Amino acid sequence: MREPEFSARGVGINRWLRSLTRAGEVRIEDGRLALLTSYGSEIDSAPVTAVRAGRPWFAGPDEAVATVNGTRYRLTLHRKDRDGGPADSGEDGDPGGTEEAGRFLAALRRAAGGH
Asked: How many domains does the chain have?
């Protein structure tokens, strides 16, 4: 079994103002993006080529917005330390989540065949 191209746990997943889960999982595997609850149930999924994602001006540094099957989700990705708690800011002053949201967007582009 292959490793997923991207996997993040403890992700807040919101649809508009409604919170679907505060500790979900975002997974990119075998050319598909899957949004999962903390129990592993699927919220939504689609081929990565059909997903639009980015970081709009109004999003926080640890947030990304993804449109999956016509539904817009706000994803709050927190980088975790080894103990599972939120990590401190990086030495360069980068907030902990910025790196994780950037990793998600880069992994989505790679999986879709972009650069």
From this structure: 1
Range of the domain at 96: 6-111
Report the CATH number that the domain containing residue 86 is assigned in CATH: 2.30.29.30
CB-based burial of residue 97 (10 Å sphere; 0-12 exposed, 13-18 middle, 19+ buried)?
Answer: buried
Strand partners, 64: 75
Backbone φ and ψ for 102, nearest 5 degrees, come out as: -65, -40
Reported as a single tens digit per residue, the pLDDT across 55-112 is 988 888 899 999 999 999 999 998 654 344 444 444 344 444 468 899 999 999 999 9
